[in-house]
Design goal:
By secondary structure, this protein is mainly alpha-helical. It contains nine helices and no strands.
């Protein structure tokens, strides 16, 4: 990938995640990145296209991160523990892969755009569906109710950790989910 294009995506993602998409203008991205406006528009025809590139980069990073955290599980209970332990490390800023915790970039981004059929909202929805599918692929025994519970608790844990600063939420989630899991 072109170095300046990547720099623009990296800068946009960092700023969007820290401050929100709608509070960051193109000029701030240009100033922080040091890239010229013409170069930006040679790579991205609009701010929306840059937002989608930032979302795609975060999506790939998150998928790879989560895959490494849950790939070697041998039971549904182990999956639950690995998943929520990984979230805990993210919430506590002890896992450098995802950077400092500012909530879910996809929830935050989706909340900024009211058109639920717009490209940004649809991308965020697809991200959540792919995370669900990834978790489902690692369940040792198929259990649709447990899968629903894990995904709902994961989303709730992310929100509670960010909005309420409840960093004990992962332990609570593990306890509750283990009671639902049969293995």
């Amino acid at each position: 990938m072109n170095k300046k294009r990547q720099l623009l995506i990296d800068t946009a993602l960092s700023l969007f995640y820290k401050k929100g998409i709608n509070t960051i203008g193109i000029n701030e991205i240009l100033q922080v990145s040091g890239v010229a406006k013409n170069t930006l528009y040679n790579h991205f025809s609009s701010k929306e296209e840059l937002i989608l590139a930032a979302l795609e980069q975060r999506h790939q990073l998150f998928i790879e991160w989560l895959t490494t955290k849950i790939r070697a599980v041998n039971s549904n209970k182990e999956l639950i523990k690995c998943l929520f332990d990984a979230l805990q490390s993210w919430f506590n800023n002890t896992d450098p892969v995802l950077g400092n915790f500012r909530g879910c970039f996809f929830i935050n981004s989706s909340a900024e755009f009211s058109d639920k059929n717009g490209k940004i909202s649809l991308f965020c929805q697809q991200h959540k569906e792919q995370i669900r599918y990834l978790i489902e692929q690692h369940l040792i025994e198929e259990d649709p109710l447990l899968l629903d519970a894990i995904c709902i608790m994961k989303e709730g844990a992310i929100s509670a950790a960010y909005v309420s600063n409840d960093l004990t939420v992962t332990n609570k989630s593990i306890t509750i989910l283990n009671q639902l899991s049969t293995n």
